[in-house]
Design a protein that fits this description.
Shape: flat
Number of helices: 13
Order of helices and strands: EHEHEEHEHHHEEHHHEEHHEHHEE
Bound molecules: guanosine-5'-triphosphate, magnesium ion
Strand content: 15-25%
Strand order of the largest sheet: 2-4-1-5-6-7
Length: 359
């Protein structure tokens, strides 16, 4: 899964990218304003994998991953024609956005619109995305209506099915509302999925607070249709990401923080994507596997290997909480709390699975 880090020039996108991925890309007070992308894969912190690792004395721990793409170059007016094919692809190919909004003041880092105004900045990018989607749906509808007219009675049923959905899409966008607020059936989503509408993608809003922060600053006061948000100090987080594990721990102890904001952002990003994890545990490897919420045991088997999926017999299931409470697989089994499930069992977040298969 890929998440695009977006925001106005100089809001701290690359700084946040460094904080999340441990990279040390250069950041600058002078924004080029040009399209530019940086990509890195990060592990999603998961205490369950860590605890299972201890329980099984495992050799290897593998976490779920997210790919972050730092996308530079967004600004007012980009929807009106400044969007290159490459830029459009970068935006369309992500599964969601981390939208960075500048709240920090600085004499050395100019703001493209001079004043610090998070609500305004948020709306600038939101309106550009709305406009990009409106232009896309209008182009598609024009073509569709033309085809329907030209082909008359020989018109493809698919086109006729698509028309009312696109009309609904257009009405929503014309009302300045994002598509993620509309309800779509899975079939409808499949139909419009190919258009890469930007306002359909989920968004996590990250408020970059800057250096001098009072507790009140952390409470987000900006209105936004999409409620997921977190406030943090990107520059500080980027510095912390460069520390060794011991030094970071010392810092956290000294300041009484139990978790770095960067790690919270990674977890929130993961939740944003409509996926969750099942776990596998053993002395060779303890691992978290990503599957869409609602996926069944057969699909989970396929996430590991098609041979396991094809030869699927049963899944042994131990929910993580039961394992943690009992302390070992043996203890869970002795309590009779391991279940056997068939292909259509809907896998729950944190299920520890063993697949019995003939593959
Ligand atoms: N004081 C302060 N400066 C910050 C903070 N976050 C970022 N900056 C500075 O702001 C400038 C821009 O940060 P970047 O991370 O490069 O911003 P960006 O959004 O990637 O900018 P472009 O890619 O040019 O659009 C750099 O000089 C950063 O050091 C912060 O929390 N406090
Ligand atoms: Mg940048």
């Amino acid at each position: 899964m890929r998440l695009g880090i977006i925001g106005l020039p100089n809001c701290g996108k690359t700084t946040l990218f460094n904080a999340l991925t441990g990279s040390s890309l250069p950041t600058s007070a002078v924004s080029s304003g040009q399209f530019e992308i940086n990509t890195a894969v990060v592990s999603v912190p998961d205490e369950r994998v860590d605890k299972l690792g201890v329980m099984y004395e495992t050799k290897k721990k593998t976490y779920a991953t997210i790919t972050y793409v730092d996308i530079g170059g967004l600004d007012k007016g980009i929807g009106q024609g400044g969007l290159s094919g490459q830029f459009r692809n970068a935006l369309q190919q992500v599964d969601g956005f981390v939208h960075v909004i500048r709240a920090f003041r600085s004499d050395t880092v100019p703001h493209p619109y001079v004043t610090i105004d998070p609500q305004r900045d948020l709306e600038i990018i939101d309106s550009e995305f709305l406009l990009i989607d409106i232009l896309a749906v209008e182009a598609r509808l024009d073509r569709l209506n033309h085809d329907i007219r030209v082909k008359g009675k020989r018109v493809d049923q698919n086109l006729l099915d698509e028309q009312p959905i696109l009309e609904r899409v257009k009405a929503q966008l014309d009302a300045s509302k994002p598509l993620r607020d509309l309800e779509f059936t899975p079939e409808e989503l499949k139909m419009i999925g190919g258009f890469g509408f930007l306002t359909l993608k989920p968004v996590l809003m990250v408020i970059n607070l800057g250096d001098e922060v009072s507790e009140g600053d952390r409470e987000v006061k900006y209105s936004y249709s999409h409620a997921r948000h977190i406030a943090l100090q990107a520059a500080l987080e980027a510095e912390l990401a460069q520390l060794s594990a011991e030094d970071a721990e010392m810092f956290m102890e000294e300041y009484g923080v139990s978790e770095l904001s960067a790690s919270k952002v990674i977890k929130l990003s993961y939740e944003l994507l409509g996926i969750h994890s099942f776990l596998t545990a053993g002395d060779k490897e303890c691992r978290a596997w990503s599957i869409p919420k609602g996926a069944n045991a057969w699909e989970a088997a396929g996430a590991i290997h098609t041979d396991i999926q094809n030869g699927f017999i049963r899944a042994e299931v131990i929910p993580y909480d039961i394992m943690a409470e009992a302390g070992s697989e043996k203890a869970v089994k002795a309590l009779g709390k391991m279940r056997l499930e068939s292909k259509d069992y809907v896998v729950q977040n944190g299920d520890i699975l063993v697949f019995r298969h003939s593959g």
